[in-house]
Amino acid sequence: MSLVLGLNLSHDRSACLVRDGEIVVAIEEERLDRIKHSEGFLIQGHFERLTKTIPIKSVAYCLDAADVGIDDLDLVVGNRPLGDGAVWRIRRDLPIRDKSKIRELPLPGHHLGHASVAFYPSGFEQAAVLVVDQAGARWPGTGRIEKHTLFRGEGSTLTRVAAVDYPSDYSDMSLGLFYDFFTVKLGFVTRYGTPDWGVFGCGGYPEAGKTMGLAPYGRPRPDWGNWLAFDGFDIKVSQQSLEDVWQRLLAEEGSEFSAADPLRWQTQFAKDVARKIQDELETAMLHLANHAREVTGLDRLCLAGGVLLNSVANERVRAESGFTDVFIPAPAGDSGVAIGAALYGSIELLGQARPAPMRHASFGRAYTRAEVLEALATVTGYTGVELACRDAGPRDVAELLAGHQVVGWFNGGSEMGPRALGHRSMLADPRHPEMRDYLNNVVKHREPFRPYAPSAVAEEAGKWFDFSGESPFMLLVPKVAGHAQQGLPAVTHVDGTARLQTVSAEANPAYHQVIAEFGALTGVPIVLNTSFNDAGEPIVETPLHALCTFVRTEMDHLYLDGLLVSKVGRELPAAHPARSPLAR
User: Fold this and answer.
1) Treating both helix axes as pointing N-terminal to C-terminal, what angle do 268-296 and 311-320 enclose, rounded to 10 degrees?
2) Chain-centre distance of CA 65, in angstroms?
3) Is the pTM of this model over 0.85?
4) N or C: which terminal CB in the chain sees fewer CB atoms within 10 Å?
5) Peptide bond into 220 cis (omega under 30)
């Protein structure tokens, strides 16, 4: 038996344990330390917190879930964040006796970690593998940073085919940084740390998903010209050129836009900027994908890197790039590098076979009924909120959803990656025209323009969406079928699209049953699915996290691995969809 531990040391720190080539358990540090994006060793030129370590909570979680000790490991493989070596940090912080077991992805390494989680579990024997993100690792001795990289995957081998980089002075920079530049300007930032911390000194982490959500409200602006320049496999843009563009736009059209106004996204100027950078990104991703097909001559494509969390651009690539099949892993961002590192160690260093294709992202541990009951007693004792519990199943949850109730759904092991996929979700009725606003304004405290995603039973998704194939990780955004848009107002975005998740009975039987039961009751085999968290928080991991979020938000019920939890004596808020005359 071989055991390999993979570690991601950049932002979204994480750990993964692979046994005999198969992923056993994986977790993001933010789910355990409850710090969104769980700052890693990425940022240079700023202070380094004294508490900054490897993702030790995630390491302990993985070892405990697999019931192994740290000295049972055959290898520990880490990535190399921007400007930092991995090995000395792991040797410093990891209490493993045999330090020779600690290895590093071949330098520069970061993009290889992304490529590994994209290709090895794809199920493809051959594929072009494209990595596009904000910042990779530094090339040794050059000071230059991985920008985007093309690999050729064949069997158990990944070979770098083409790569471009950029200098640390940002006289040229990546597509991820391009998108983040304007995201910061629009004010979409998770705030933590000191004011000079983060990308462009924004004091936090750019929330690019908000920019993507705002973009459909904007107008096409071809009159603003092209902000990206294409040169073969390279895409050129500099921070200074973008600053010049920004200042010119502010002077010409941004008089209503104030950086001091937290609601500045409401201006048409902000909406047009979001639309413009989304359009530019989609064009750039299509350019890179077309180049990948021409260079490799392959008909399958694997994608990874933080930019691949832009599910709208992903759909353009899937539909228009000419590849017959596209695979994007659920943890396409930096958290997935831990899986990539572990798989690289298992396959390339130990000679193990590739894992089974990734059909789900539920790599967390399950919790026992005893742990659930202990969490219930803890929450009741500390909050004084009286909770009622009863045994329940998917049919009970479906009936509540059909009655326009909002249900927290906690089932099995948590997902790896930023999307809730039916293990740590909030569920609601996609048919109710007021449900989106209620969730945004009352339950999750988010901006009102942000959309919600549909989860559909895989066998019927094609009847409701202009889509064929699979979208298990909610990383593609097809059109909602014309006849279905009026009937799915809570999950249809302003441009008629939806970030679709297809759910198979094989990959997630309990969640599939909920949706199927809801379909039997309503004629619509689709539920609204959003992550189980409040604004600015990581997704819940434990029963205690779920219960704490439940008692302090306006969720109506909580399903906890077979127990249905309700708040005794609670009255529905005035804005609740079930109280609306539009309820149906």
Assistant:
1) 40
2) 23
3) yes
4) N
5) no
